[in-house]
Amino acid sequence: MNLVLLEPSNFIAETRARLQGRALQHIREVHRANTGDTLRVGVVNGRIGRGTIESIHSDAVEMSIKLDTDPPSPLPLRLILALPRPKVLNRTIAAAASMGIREIDLINAWRVEKAYWESPKLSEENLREQSILGLEQAGDTVLPTIRLHKLFTPFVREQLPPTLEGKRALLAHPYASEEMPRQVRDSIVLAVGPEGGFIDREVETFREMGFSEVRLGPRILRVETALAALVGRLF
Amino acid sequence: MNLVLLEPSNFIAETRARLQGRALQHIREVHRANTGDTLRVGVVNGRIGRGTIESIHSDAVEMSIKLDTDPPSPLPLRLILALPRPKVLNRTIAAAASMGIREIDLINAWRVEKAYWESPKLSEENLREQSILGLEQAGDTVLPTIRLHKLFTPFVREQLPPTLEGKRALLAHPYASEEMPRQVRDSIVLAVGPEGGFIDREVETFREMGFSEVRLGPRILRVETALAALVGRLF
Hints:
The structure is a homodimer. Chain A is of the alpha/beta class. The first copy, chain A, has six helices and twelve strands.
């Protein structure tokens, strides 16, 4: 936790916040912070600054808050991601949020197992919690917007295309002949497939909607590793 | 598992291999493979090809093996990594192996907790197992060489410098003014610090040994995310 993220509900006065639960535990056990210590803080979807501990007990910590910095700029990237296995989902959402990805569409695909859509990890609450873990790691405050699309075709053929204007649409695909571009200046829409990849018919649909297939390298990476490598390369 | 990695001991004849344990379980439960099916296989530190299942039972699978491809080229990167927390170590080793990193030096630093060096995860056996998981994910066969250096100064001041000739030595550092280079042609030695970073004195030591400090971006990433982003950007 490189930043303590405050919710509006944590403020008990304009410049004073009170925290309990996970954040309190982390401040006590990992930071081992005492009265008078300062910590990096930020407000969800807001500014960043310092919190000075006014009191800290087993039930709550109170800090006086001074916010003076804007959060880092978001990446100009919208991620279209085939829904990963529940075990992988949490890590992937946290990693994406930590890298500054602010728009994530989780979509269905032939190789996404139906059962994944029933996972409690897809609850709004869990997706928000994973995003917050990523932001607290990164030192950022802006939550990604995460949308779920249980039907591939209506999303890729109808909802997605009107949003692509002026953007560069890329499909990460292990067998593409074109290399993933580097240091792009455009706003990017990046589609990443499931384990085993999108099937040919899905690749064809993306192609018809204006996506270019690009490959990353000779190795098949786990989704969260691939995503970080793609972001490192694109921006 | 995108490739089944065979040890020399798995060969019961020149072109026939017999597997039990974790690989067998994966082939039965995830691939749900039957007699006659073919799987991608490779030999540890050797070539890649196809295995055709000749028999499969609850106690063993036997495959006829045809090897016809070299593994992907390794990355021209030696990683000098401050020993991560044991929980993070496994993921990081697997991710590094999956990306084609073939030389990893785990080193001490001021912010590495002493207890990390006592972790059973540092056993040769576990480091090899994590590497194999990474290689099987990536479709690669070549194990990284992983070395442990419990003393920072003798390693960075004495052992490391003679090996740096002709290479570009970079230190990933959040507060550096210079940006991480892109698409390098050189062979790279990359040092990555612990959570919280190397302390000033350590940064100074790296600098004296010829390392340049470079930054990745405005966000602080987890070590395995940072590593993938660095690799994506450098190569």
